[in-house]
């Protein structure tokens, strides 16, 4: 009789263990079945920068690991990842922003991730300047080679006027 009680008491523990193993297997199969697209590491990070004094917005395209100065800010993107065109858009950049003080001292004011789809989430908000990520780019925009097809026709030089001698 004591053996029967132990077997009955152990049954719920075995059932729980079986349920945990079953759920673990189902979750593993679900996660493995989802195809996650590889992120694309881009060589250029595109930012918008606002000068609050003039109200002018500038567009900055900065190569990874290079620094560009905007006003008193120095912006350095370290990584700029995006998803393939077949996936929903997601651009994220790891950025360092330094401020150049009036004394010439450089102070780090931002280090972290910026997300183009949520510009207000991790933008640099400075008393005079704001900087936020707009996109990640695979290459710099190429300007088309000059073409004479679309240029205005150049008028022929004026003929020399006949001289009238009377």
Structural notes for this entry:
By secondary structure, the chain is of the alpha+beta class. It has a domain at 40-137. 19% of the residues lie in helices and 37% in strands. The strands form two sheets. Strands 1, 4, 5, 6 and 7 form a five-stranded antiparallel beta sheet that branches. A four-stranded antiparallel beta sheet has the order 3-2-9-8, with no helix packed on it. A hairpin with a 4-residue loop joins strand 2 and strand 3 (56-63). The model is unreliable at 26-34 (pLDDT under 50).
Per DSSP, the total helix count is 1
Helix content: 10-25%
Rounded Rg? 32 Å
Spatial shape: extended
Largest sheet: 5 strands, antiparallel
What is the H/E string? HEEEEEEEEE
In total, the number of strands is 9
Based on secondary structure, the structural category is alpha+beta
Parts with pLDDT < 50 across at least 5 consecutive residues: 26-34
Oligomer: single chain
Strand content: 35-45%
Mean pLDDT equals 77
**Span of the ends, CA to CA:** 146 Å
Structure summarized in a few sentences:
With 166 residues, the chain is of the alpha+beta class. It has one helix at residues 2-33, and strands at residues 40-41, 44-51, 56-63, 68-70, 73-82, 92-100, 106-115, 124-125, 129-137. The chain is extended.
């Amino acid at each position: 009789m004591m053996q029967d009680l132990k077997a009955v008491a152990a049954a719920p523990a075995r059932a729980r263990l079986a349920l945990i193993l079953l759920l673990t297997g189902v979750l593993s199969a679900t996660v493995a079945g989802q195809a996650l697209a590889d992120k694309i590491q881009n060589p250029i990070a595109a930012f918008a920068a606002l000068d609050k004094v003039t109200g002018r917005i500038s567009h900055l395209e900065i190569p990874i690991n290079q620094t560009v100065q905007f006003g008193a800010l120095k912006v350095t993107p370290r990584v700029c990842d995006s998803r393939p065109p077949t996936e929903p858009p997601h651009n994220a950049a790891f950025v360092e922003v330094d401020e150049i003080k009036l004394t010439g001292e450089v102070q780090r004011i931002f280090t972290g991730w910026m997300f183009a789809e949520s510009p207000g989430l991790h933008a640099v908000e400075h008393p005079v300047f704001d900087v936020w990520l707009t996109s990640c780019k695979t290459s710099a925009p190429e300007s088309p080679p000059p073409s004479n097809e679309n240029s205005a026709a150049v008028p022929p030089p004026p003929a020399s006027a006949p001289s009238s001698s009377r």
